[in-house]
Specification:
By secondary structure, the chain is of the alpha+beta class.
Length: 396
């Protein structure tokens, strides 16, 4: 019930007004979520909501006093984040990620709240099951957070004795992204600058584009005056480069305009000259003359070509292997280190759902801010203004 409306007072499809409710059940020490409907105006529903809220707080205070318990399960998570974690945290990144997990994964999927002292294994496992069904790795993120939070509650005797091993464990998905240290990243960029695929690498690392978005780019997608790039299509093909397909992104969240570093335009000019030479050599490939990422035969490259190039670059430089998606993860890490909001990161990356961004960002380790300094200078003023409001991602 709790996730069916964004605000406590809302209008139904039939035109009537309704509001959410919280009802205390003193017999089983739970807070159950519901709604009251049939109000003829917003004002009437608002008045009813305020009366129900006063009644709820009175009943809850009475129940807490009778049970000598200061928190409900939901209230405890907020307390643990804001009072316990904030005291011992050595950076805002960790707190932000925990806040996202609590506010976006756990809290909206409590079908009912319960006094902390009455929490059971069955209750926790049902919460985790709902979290896992909500988004990729939702169960894992919720399990990891609750495991730490409930340990603190147990130390303070707010939680009944229970075997934590019986809480259902949701493992993290395999295949963690690769992240370079500042020194490794400098070495990588130096080595990549000598590659014929340097521009594609920069577009992934400095703009966060997917391989398909990069391969689908045309020169006309760049605006030197506005210093922007507009993502309008995705290019896909098999490993051999056959069965190519272009998917238009009009009226989707992936169709977005982004501010980009100015140095990309000099790379763009160099790429245009290279492609002109290729098209002169292969005049039959004129159908691709407006596209940016052309291979040796003047046809659009494939994802496997980019992957093979990264393998050569990293091997010769003595670096851990990575792929184009890892570069996108590194870009997202730069955004998080500069305190971009979840909404801003989601918009810049072109995710259709914030839950995708949440799962994406929770695979990024909390690292020393020095890592972001490697490219931070290049990304200002592109990422220097309006970062919390998401102004760096402008839709046309």
């Amino acid at each position: 019930m709790k996730e069916q409306a964004k605000t406590p007072v809302f209008q139904e499809d039939n035109g009537t007004w309704a509001h959410l409710t919280k009802l205390v059940n003193p017999l089983i020490c739970t807070i159950e979520y519901g709604r009251r409907t049939g109000f003829s105006s917003r004002e009437e529903a608002e008045e009813s909501y305020q009366r129900s809220l006063v009644s709820y707080h009175d009943q809850l205070s009475k129940l807490k006093k009778e049970r000598d318990m200061p928190f409900t399960f939901s209230e405890y998570l907020d307390y643990w984040l804001n009072d316990v974690c904030a005291q011992g945290s050595n950076g805002s990144r960790t707190l932000v990620q925990k806040q996202w997990i609590i506010n976006l994964i756990i809290q909206p999927h409590l079908h009912k709240d319960i006094l902390l002292g009455c929490v059971t294994l069955d209750y926790l496992n049902r919460v985790l099951e709902s979290c896992q069904a909500y988004c990729c790795n939702g169960g894992y993120y919720a399990y990891k957070l609750l495991h730490n939070a409930l340990k603190h509650a147990r130390v303070n005797n707010w939680l009944p004795d229970m075997d934590f091993q019986q809480i259902r464990h949701y493992p993290e998905s395999p295949g963690n992204p690769v992240f370079y240290s500042p020194e490794q990243l400098r070495t990588f960029l130096t080595a990549a600058s000598n590659s014929n695929h340097y521009l594609e690498i920069q577009l992934a690392l400095f703009c966060g584009l997917t391989p398909g978005e990069i391969l689908g780019l045309k020169y006309s997608d760049f605006n030197r005056h506005e210093q922007t790039i507009t993502i309008q299509r995705i290019y896909t093909s098999n490993d051999s480069g056959k069965n190519c397909q272009l998917k238009k992104l009009e009226e989707t969240k992936q169709n977005r305009s982004l501010k980009i570093p100015s140095f990309l335009f000099s790379e763009l000019s160099a790429r245009r000259k290279e492609n002109r030479k290729l098209l002169t050599k292969y005049p039959s490939a004129t159908g691709y003359k407006s596209y940016l990422c052309l291979g040796p035969t003047a046809k659009i490259k494939s994802v496997s070509t980019l992957g093979a190039a990264l393998k050569v670059i990293t091997t010769e430089a003595g670096l851990p292997r990575l792929n184009m998606r890892d570069l996108r993860y590194m870009f997202a890490r730069f955004l998080l280190e500069q305190d971009f909001s979840l909404e801003a990161v989601s918009g810049i990356l072109g995710h259709t759902k914030q839950t995708t961004t949440l799962a994406f960002c929770n695979r990024i380790p909390c690292t020393d801010p020095e890592v972001g300094a490697v490219v931070a200078g290049s990304l200002d003023p592109v990422l220097g203004a309006g970062k919390k409001e998401g102004k760096t991602c402008e839709k046309e």
